[in-house]
Specification:
alpha+beta; two-stranded antiparallel ribbon; globular
């Protein structure tokens, strides 16, 4: 699977434009922070049982704000942006309840255009370093905790699901060619950004 860095931006542009046409410019996230995740490299390994870890949306967003404020991007920022895109997908489908176990989480106002700016900054940084495309030929299936369990900390997730990077990328190619988008495409792009993060981290 060959991922052109510019196509990442084009895919997110289509998603952002589509939901802006529907009147969605800003999403408020004030009822979630922690989420279940299988960390790299285990998330794409299937020869052993994966271990769940905990991520933090607030920490991810703070790291991305550092980039927006002029900090140097890192490979991990692609993974952070991927996690934020998963939350965007969830929030579009289900508006905020503003409560998490009776405790309000920190508030994040995510402007969809800001997501596009962030991705453009990350891609530009790596393009200037000579990375225009990435070959991802040793990863396909990956472990993922599905919504709503991925942000539910009342109990551990009952099971992990399996996603496919090849399928995700093929569906994003559809977005690029046919301009038909769904909220699931944010999740797909988030998974691809994780793979990009891991590949860049190895270089």
């Amino acid at each position: 699977m060959r991922i052109l860095m510019q196509e990442l931006i084009l895919a997110l542009t289509r998603l952002v434009e589509r939901y802006q046409q529907l009147g969605i410019d800003v999403l408020t996230i004030d009822d979630m922070d922690r989420y279940w995740v299988v960390r790299s490299p285990e998330w794409t390994e299937f020869h052993q049982d994966p271990k769940l870890s905990v991520g933090s949306l607030l920490e991810d967003w703070a790291g991305l704000q550092r980039v927006l404020e002029g900090g140097s991007p890192t490979a991990v920022d692609f993974e952070r942006l991927g996690a934020v895109l998963r939350v965007v997908s969830d929030r579009i489908l289900e508006p905020s309840t503003s409560e998490t176990d009776g405790i309000k989480a920190g508030r994040i106002d995510i402007q969809l255009r800001q997501l596009l700016l962030l991705l453009a900054m990350l891609v530009e940084h790596y393009q200037q370093a000579g990375v225009d495309a990435l070959e991802i030929d040793d990863m396909d299936y990956y472990w993922v905790v599905q919504p709503p369990e991925w942000t539910d900390f009342q109990k551990e997730p009952s099971s992990l699901c399996v996603g496919s990077l090849i399928d995700d990328w093929a569906e994003l190619q559809r977005v690029l060619k046919e301009d038909i988008v769904t909220t699931v495409d944010f999740n797909r792009l988030g998974a691809v950004l994780r793979a990009v993060s891991e590949r860049l981290g190895r270089q």
